[in-house]
Amino acid sequence: MRDQLNTALKEAMKSQEKRRTATLRLINAAIKDRDIAARSTSDDGVSDTEILEIMAKMIKQRRESITTYEEAGRLELAQQEREEIEIIEGFMPKQLGEDETRAAVDEVLKELECSGLKDMGRAMGALKERYAGQMDFSKASKVVKELLG
Questions:
Q1: Mean pLDDT of 55-80
Q2: Which of 1, 59, 113, 147 could make an SS bond with 48 (beta carbons 3.0 to 4.6 A apart)?
Q3: Domains of the chain
């Protein structure tokens, strides 16, 4: 994953794509921050799964910013955030649709033999482990509550 991001950054710099270059640098900076924080526990830095989590968080932050910018009438900044989301999503695995998410949640709940809301934490942990970067976990959480509640 790191190599893919670094290669894309070099290509963006060569082709002078300013937005793409800036966005890829932001991703690398976020990964480096997490690497530094993880140094005390491991020498290899963060895993690909953690990189996907970082990028998913970046997308979520940008979606929140879009709402804020649009409410403030700053449409050019909202557009910039949309462009950054598009760039980041290019490195993410295919996102599961609503039906696929529901099926995945159902499978995990049956597999873990979840019977009530007390099992929600275990279920969400298993989903995050298996579907990192592929699933919107806020939507998955709603499905888990619906099926367990």
A1: 95
A2: 1
A3: 2-89 (1.10.1510.10), 98-148 (1.10.10.410)
